[in-house]
Amino acid sequence: GQQLNQSPQSMFIQEGEDVSMNCTSSSIFNTWLWYKQDPGEGPVLLIALYKAGELTSNGRLTAQFGITRKDSFLNISASIPSDVGIYFCAGQPGTASKLTFGTGTRLQVTL
Amino acid sequence: GAVVSQHPSWVICKSGTSVKIECRSLDFQATTMFWYRQFPKQSLMLMATSNEGSKATYEQGVEKDKFLINHASLTLSTLTVTSAHPEDSSFYICSASTGQEMNTEAFFGQGTRLTVV
Known about the structure:
By secondary structure, chain A is mainly beta. Chain A contains no helices and 11 strands. Chain A has strands spanning 5-7, 10-14, 19-24, 31-37, 44-49, 55-58, 61-65, 71-76, 85-92, 100-101, 105-110. In chain A, the strands form 2 sheets. In chain A, strands 2, 4, 5, 9, 10 and 11 form a 6-stranded mixed beta sheet that branches. A 5-stranded antiparallel beta sheet of chain A has the order 1-3-8-7-6, with no helix packed on it. Chain B has no helices and 11 strands. Chain B has strands spanning 4-7, 10-13, 19-25, 32-38, 45-51, 57-58, 67-73, 76-81, 90-97, 107-108, 112-116. Chain B is globular and about 35 Å long. Classes of the chains: A mainly beta, B mainly beta.
């Protein structure tokens, strides 16, 4: 099945640093979502974006819906150890339709 | 947020046997449920979409006779892996959505790790 291209694949950063990851697609999505998955758990929604150009924040997290509707990025500021995990973007073409997930970004935070 | 519960969290079964995984929406009615499979260090891949009271829609390459999906009520969907083989070992995750409003969020279960020996 289709997957979204997500980069970087993995990141090793120090506590306190900012993090940026992005997701690109060859097709248009009407909704972009960002999830975090801890080992052995299901993904948890971090931010949902519903409008092209939209910039949304959730605490230390900020995400943007690309103006072309084919990309999105997620920034994490002042990273902390509990930010460790795998971050997935997901695109949704329409209302309540199935999600296409990105390839994931594995984040490691060192003290 | 809404709660989706999967059971069991993990299961080990012998090759050739069948395994049933349950997905329940605990505090809302889920018109639509989705089943995903995730292999180690890989992303989630959609297997099928099920709507309450109708047959599931399977993604290309997913065998509907091997992965039986039943969505008999608005709060329960089940995935049965029939005649399981070691290559079916994976992390299976469901999500549930009310599917009735714009920008409806889908809530994920905690996943079920299946190991076939």
